[in-house]
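Moderator note: this is an archived Q&A kept for reference. The question asked for a predicted structure of one protein chain; the sequence and the answer are reproduced below.
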Amino acid sequence: MTHLHIADGVLPTWLWIVGFALAFAFAAGASFHHRHDRPDRLTLLAALGAVMLLAMSVPIGPLVHLSFAPMVGILLGPGLGFLAALLVNATLALLGHGGLTVVGLNALVLGAAVAPARPVYRLLRKRMKPGRAGAFTAVAALACSVAALYVVIALANRGDLASLLADDDHAGAQATGRFVLFSSPFWVLATVAEALVTSSVLSFLARVRPELLP
């Protein structure tokens, strides 16, 4: 889920270049912000990145797979969570899950789920137990990620910058609409699965390792 399995040469050049620029800008800012973090935080980043990589390699149906992005966002926060998303997407690209040119866009799409997860969880945790708060956090985080994915698809369907600025590509808009209509049921299925997994893991951590939770 929330990952573009698109080969190199398909997306407009300007789009994936912008994706790389934004992804590396966010990664540089996160690296600078966390430059004095404790070593165990980096260990947790590596461990959760490995879990995310494994989850994203196992499909649960057409078009979708688990991502563990909400869980990673809750445990690591927006900055380290985005670094995990970037590293995982780069590794998946080397394994053939999408081209190298879409790594930046994939990091942004997955980062859209990671970044809001901890703030939303903290807000919900004031009124809910960890498991239930995690489930609702997963739904909200993945909604942001799917929205980012649809934005990328819509921009890709517009083709070059001239078509985008002219806003006259009706065929591209229709193609985007068909994709949204076709894919929505699969996103719902994946979101439910992600919410259940996130809820289960957070409930477990709350009992055995509560210090890991924000």
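Archived answer notes: The mean pLDDT is 86.
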